[in-house]
Design goal:
Elements lengths: L1 H18 L8 H38 L3 H24 L11 E7 L3 H21 L2 E10 L5 E10 L9 H5 L4 E7 L10 E11 L13 E6 L15 E6 L4 E5 L5 H24 L5 H4 L10 E6 L4 E4 L5 E2 L2 H5 L4 H20 L1
Parallel strand pairs: 4-9
Antiparallel strand pairs: 1-3, 1-5, 2-3, 4-5, 6-7, 7-8, 9-10, 10-11
Length: 357
């Protein structure tokens, strides 16, 4: 642990020297890259300094305890502080997901349950929008298809950080754990007998890729235009503004119809397509870590659930981590941090175990 941390301390010092070079002002891209790395290293280096200081305090107290019993009484507290500092440093030294600093494109899709599933898809979408607002992220609905009762058959949302995020604080670092089937148990508005129904909503989360990162050959695309459908809007059912893009080599199909112009819908569809192709490339590069993607939705079936939202008991349960809480109302209002944190901590524990093996 000490050896790897000292390498990061040396890297931070080297970064400081590079950032002090006046010539860097003429290269904003390089400056942004260095600032990003500097921000990522800062917490780890600070934790290393705290650990070194805590270990030194323990060593000094042990030496002095031979002459003064008062120092012996302080040893347990100093050792506990050193152990806590070591644990914090160890967690920060866990190899990070290289995608963790990215923004995301999040998709919500109704599954089993008909209109009730579409209504819950709307609730899930609002939950993520409110959660993003709580964390200071910026959101943009790229495309959405409403259902007859006001829910959503499907929706795609871009979630972006407004500023350089702290390590582990970017949208992908947090929301990547949300991919999977979300099951709801409640009395639907369409139920006249008051019976509790179970339905499911699928959530996909993909790190957003820049156009320079994913090279899309225009010759590999088939672009179809059609008339938008759905409630309201001057362009709905009147102009061929909706766009469907098929990536021929992979068969990935993306459609967008939210914007009034065909050009805007095409650009939104390309953003989603880039994210999906980037995700495919990630899966191929990390085939040995396929469980990360396997936890997301393959089919929107109730049996493949990662989380259950039980309205009668006001309970939320995450089936991967065992997290349970009776504050479903506040979670649906965007207070997702405790639920996501249980996934973060479970992931960290698994990574620590892998390091020890």
């Amino acid at each position: 642990m000490l050896e790897s941390a000292e390498a990061l301390v040396a890297e931070l010092s080297a970064l400081e020297r590079q950032m002090a070079d006046p010539a860097l002002a003429s290269d904003p891209d390089r400056m942004r890259e260095l600032n990003k790395r500097y921000a990522a290293l800062g917490p780890t280096v600070a934790a290393h300094q705290q650990w070194v200081a805590a270990v030194a305090d323990v060593g000094a107290a042990r030496e002095l305890a031979q002459e003064d019993a008062g120092f012996a009484q302080e040893l347990p507290d100093l050792e506990a502080t050193a152990a806590e500092a070591a644990g914090r440093l160890r967690r920060l030294l866990i190899p990070r997901d290289p995608e963790d600093d990215r923004d995301v494109i999040l998709e919500v899709k109704a599954g089993e349950g008909g209109e009730e599933s579409a209504l819950f898809a709307g609730d899930v979408l609002r939950m993520y929008l409110r959660h993003a607002e709580r964390r200071g992220w910026r959101t943009e609905v790229l495309d959405a298809t409403e259902s007859d009762l006001g829910g959503y058959k499907d929706a795609r949302v871009s979630v972006k950080s407004r500023r350089a995020p702290k390590p582990g604080g970017a949208p992908w670092a947090r929301l990547k754990f949300e991919g999977g089937v979300h099951r709801v148990q409640r009395v639907p508005v369409t139920e006249s007998q008051g019976r509790i129904h179970t339905s499911a909503v699928g959530v996909w989360v993909m790190p957003e890729a820049e156009d320079v990162e994913v090279n899309i050959d225009p010759n590999d695309l088939r672009v179809d235009v059609f008339r938008s459908s759905g409630p309201g809007g001057q362009s709905v059912n009147t102009t061929d503004s909706a766009v469907r893009i098929t990536h021929l080599p992979t068969g990935v199909v993306v459609s967008c119809q939210n914007e009034k112009s065909q050009l805007q819908n095409r650009e939104a569809a390309l953003r989603v397509l880039r994210a999906r192709l980037h995700q495919i490339a990630m899966d191929e590069r990390h085939a040995q870590d396929a469980d990360a993607r396997a936890s997301q939705v393959r089919t929107v079936d109730r049996s493949e659930r990662i989380r259950t939202y039980n309205y009668p008991e006001n309970r939320i349960s995450d089936h991967r981590t065992g997290f349970k809480a009776h504050n479903l109302d506040t979670v649906l209002d965007g207070d997702l941090d405790p639920v996501i944190q249980s996934c973060v901590e479970s992931d960290e524990a698994a990574r620590l175990t892998a390091l020890a093996e």
